[in-house]
Recover the amino acids of this structure.
């Protein structure tokens, strides 16, 4: 096997969290050296990204086989990225992670930029969640963050333009390649994404960009939104009256995301909520609570839907 | 201090953390906003978390990914001769040599099947290869002549002692390299510029030049008369070689069907043989020879290894005589650097040229020269002095100083094109390699030593050098960026001694991490030359600088442009 010459380094996409998080499609060749991709709704075939944001959580946990896994969240103007750093990461990456964890514990906020590989995992029900595995990262200042934001916005706008152009065309490689509005690197991804996601709503991405540009321009007042109605206590602590609001949001968004028309089954919900850091008993309790409140209903046993 | 702008947020935070002090929370919000550009709705979670940071949260990940894939006995082989008649579920990488479709009646049903030849060992340039026939029972659109594919789940079929491969309904065909020989209907002419690098083609073109030549057989058993020439259409020019007698004249418009394309170095050439059909073609609107000949003038960026009969106008920047001994006699050749506004490269001449080294730079027109390349850098070879015409003035702006002039090229173009000299590009730093800093080079060959050893010259004391190794990326392609000592020290704004003492006191790992915090995700501008091969591109830079960007202005610009759409 001459694997070397064929493995070209995959380029990195500047991408906001919302686009990456919305992705539920992946592509993986079966060969050992085939790159794998997460395909976003806007047609980016992502193997590697450059992301940045506020480090919001970074915690260490032991996995079943005794290795150490750090899991964290990075918040940009559009939402959060989930990332993990394990024993497989480079020494420099692990050392930085340890340093950042200490800073988190000490309550010192940091802006972080990372070049990361796109990962996904699939639940038994077929739902796909994306996450990141950073290769290299560093602490950055506000100025660098603002520059990253402009690049991520420009990238998203370009992809939205190409996406809109693709709607006018037959979803074939020929038609897309011939179109001047669709860059070559989006042709394949757009075909796959249009087949998979069907109609998508660009409104949310537009809002994300507007807010992100406000921040890059230094117009903090227009980037400031009213206080979220949600209570922000971290639900897993589960010992004060604010219990469950993050969990509630998580469960509701899971149902929204996974519902293909028949509702979402109990097991899928709990294992997914668990993967998001909410223990199963809490998830179960939340489902009960939501059913009682009439927010979700159970059209047939063990399947949950949001009450429209 | 915060003029109450965060009041509603502070209230929300205090609800969570009743003991927290108003001013402390306000200060935190302000710090996030001013230092980090994080609006309060995004920073409030972090603030609450840090106020509550004493309580740590146990966190468990979802139960293992229990993908219960069944064990399938896949037989993975590299060569066809490893296979036996009863083998099933085979995985192998092959090149598709031919692909044909036919209708067949199977159990009373009309079905289309595909068949043809495939070849193993597809990655070896000239290695030994085996060819087998194959049948594809559910014709896969991924099979095309010239493509390299991985077949998964195929089986062996043995009939009268002859083995072939069956590609079944359930088999998977993964394209690893797209076919370079598009299937073209016979008799349908292709543009010269879009010809593949091998295979057969049909071309309509006008003959630009012709000359008779002889090829001497290597075994000394005689020589073959051939005709060489060049053929052009509006899209480009290609050289040809006819092994048969050739009666058409310069200027004639001809149609050639069934010509074989062979690629010498990086330059394709048409070969006319016994089965090639060459005939006059009639098209009043086809451009004349004068128009087509203009295309023969190439710029430095268009030079390719193996090209012949090239005309170009260049400026000679450096010119010197080199003597060497061959077969006991002293010989010499002239060589030096040349340039035009598209780039720089080298030139060599085997005869004395009327060039006064003291009056350089000089502009010359070169006619009918050939191009070789060394490490991807084109080197024009001038065989006789009459190929060179001295020009009084340059066709371009006289003020360009080619010894320092570099050409701006976008990274994607550099990464996918030929090797270039004298280029500058801008891209984002996506990796700072951990061997950036001091390295030891082999005293014999200047290669980097690994643990004090050179791959060819073994143990070695080494010579200390400084270099930085980065990866840069423009979102479409990436390239390694190696910056030499001068460029690295310039970029770091440090002397070699300062660099040494920093690494000595903080360690290599810390040094590299410091580089990352200065460079990762930021734009860099680098100048130098590139080497591009199948493994990707590499830029060898002698200078580099970080590009300062104004995010506020850029954001306003993006918003304005976006608004137009």
């Amino acid at each position: 096997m001459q694997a070397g010459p064929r493995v070209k380094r995959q380029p990195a996409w500047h991408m906001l969290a919302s686009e990456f998080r919305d992705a539920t499609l992946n592509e993986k060749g079966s060969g050992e050296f085939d790159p794998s991709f997460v395909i976003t709704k806007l047609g980016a075939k992502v193997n590697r990204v450059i992301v940045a944001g506020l480090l919001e959580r970074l915690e260490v946990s032991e996995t079943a086989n005794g290795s150490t896994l750090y899991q964290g969240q990075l918040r940009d103007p559009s939402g959060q990225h989930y990332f993990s750093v394990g024993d497989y990461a480079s020494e420099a990456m692990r050392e930085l992670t340890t340093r950042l964890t200490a800073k988190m514990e000490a309550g010192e906020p940091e802006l972080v930029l990372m070049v990361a590989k796109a990962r996904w995992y699939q639940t038994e029900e077929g739902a796909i969640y994306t996450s990141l595995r950073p290769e290299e990262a560093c602490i950055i200042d506000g100025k660098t963050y603002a520059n990253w934001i402009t690049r991520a916005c420009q990238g998203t706008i370009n992809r939205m333009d190409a996406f809109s152009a693709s709607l006018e065309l037959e979803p074939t490689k020929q038609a897309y390649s011939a179109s001047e509005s669709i860059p070559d690197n989006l042709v394949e991804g757009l075909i796959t994404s249009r087949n998979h996601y069907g109609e998508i709503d660009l409104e949310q991405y537009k809002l994300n960009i507007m807010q992100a540009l406000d921040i890059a321009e230094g117009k903090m007042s227009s980037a400031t939104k009213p206080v979220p109605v949600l209570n922000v206590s971290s639900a897993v602590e589960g010992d004060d009256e604010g219990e469950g609001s993050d969990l509630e949001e998580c469960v509701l968004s899971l149902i929204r995301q996974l519902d293909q028309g028949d509702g979402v089954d109990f097991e899928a919900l709990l294992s997914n909520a668990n993967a998001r850091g909410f223990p199963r008993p809490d998830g179960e309790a939340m489902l009960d609570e939501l059913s009682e409140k009439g927010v979700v209903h159970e059209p047939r046993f063990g399947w949950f839907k949001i009450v429209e | 201090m915060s003029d109450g702008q965060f009041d509603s947020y502070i209230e929300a935070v205090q609800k969570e953390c009743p003991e927290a002090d108003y001013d402390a929370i306000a200060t935190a919000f302000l710090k996030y906003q001013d230092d980090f550009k994080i609006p309060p709705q995004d920073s409030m979670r972090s603030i609450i978390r840090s106020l509550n940071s004493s309580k740590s949260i146990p966190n468990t990940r979802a139960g293992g990914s229990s993908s219960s894939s069944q064990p399938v006995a896949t037989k993975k082989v590299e060569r066809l001769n490893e296979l036996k008649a009863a083998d099933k579920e085979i995985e192998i990488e092959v090149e598709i040599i031919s692909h044909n479709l036919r209708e067949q009646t199977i159990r009373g049903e009309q079905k289309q099947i595909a068949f043809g030849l495939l070849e193993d060992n597809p990655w070896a340039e000239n290695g030994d290869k085996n060819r087998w026939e194959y049948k594809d029972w559910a014709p896969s659109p991924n099979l095309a002549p010239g493509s390299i594919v991985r077949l998964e789940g195929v089986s062996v079929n043995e009939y009268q002692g002859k083995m072939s491969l069956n590609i079944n309904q359930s088999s998977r065909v993964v394209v690893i390299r797209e076919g370079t020989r598009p299937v073209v209907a016979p008799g349908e002419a292709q543009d010269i510029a879009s010809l593949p690098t091998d295979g057969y083609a049909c071309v309509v073109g006008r003959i630009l030049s012709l000359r008779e030549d002889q090829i001497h057989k290597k075994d000394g058993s005689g020589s073959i008369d051939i005709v060489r020439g060049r053929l052009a259409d509006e899209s480009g020019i290609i050289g040809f070689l006819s092994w048969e007698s050739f009666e058409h004249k310069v200027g004639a418009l001809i149609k050639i069907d069934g010509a074989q394309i062979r690629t010498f170095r990086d330059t394709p050439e048409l070969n006319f043989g016994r089965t090639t059909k060459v005939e006059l073609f009639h098209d009043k609107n086809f451009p004349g020879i004068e128009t087509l000949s203009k295309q023969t003038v190439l710029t430095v960026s268009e030079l390719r290894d193996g090209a012949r009969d090239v005309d170009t106008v260049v400026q000679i920047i450096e010119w010197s005589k080199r003597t060497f001994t061959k077969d006991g006699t002293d010989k010499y050749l002239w060589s030096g650097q040349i340039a035009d506004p598209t780039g720089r490269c080298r030139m060599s001449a085997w005869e004395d040229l009327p060039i006064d080294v003291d009056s350089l730079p000089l502009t010359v027109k070169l006619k009918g020269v050939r191009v070789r390349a060394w490490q991807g850098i084109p080197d024009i070879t001038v065989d006789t002095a009459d190929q060179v015409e001295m020009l009084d003035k340059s066709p371009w702006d006289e003020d360009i100083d080619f010894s320092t002039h570099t050409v701006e090229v976008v990274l994607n173009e550099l990464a996918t094109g030929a090797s270039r000299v004298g280029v500058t590009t801008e891209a984002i730093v996506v990796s700072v390699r951990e061997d950036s800093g001091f390295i030891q080079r082999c005293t014999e060959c200047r290669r980097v030593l690994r643990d004090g050893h050179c791959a060819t010259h073994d143990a070695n004391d080494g010579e200390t050098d400084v270099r930085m190794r980065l990866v840069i990326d423009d979102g479409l392609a990436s390239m390694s960026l190696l910056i030499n000592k001068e460029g690295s020290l310039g970029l770091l704004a440090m002397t070699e001694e300062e660099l040494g003492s920093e690494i000595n006191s903080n360690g290599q790992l810390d040094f590299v991490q410091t580089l990352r915090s200065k460079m990762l995700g930021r734009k860099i501008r680098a100048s130098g030359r590139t080497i591009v091969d199948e493994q990707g591109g590499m830029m060898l830079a002698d200078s580099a600088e970080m590009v300062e960007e104004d995010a506020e202005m850029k954001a306003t610009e993006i918003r304005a442009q976006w608004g137009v759409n």
Summary: Chain B has five domains: 7-50, 75-177, 192-296, 302-390, 407-551.
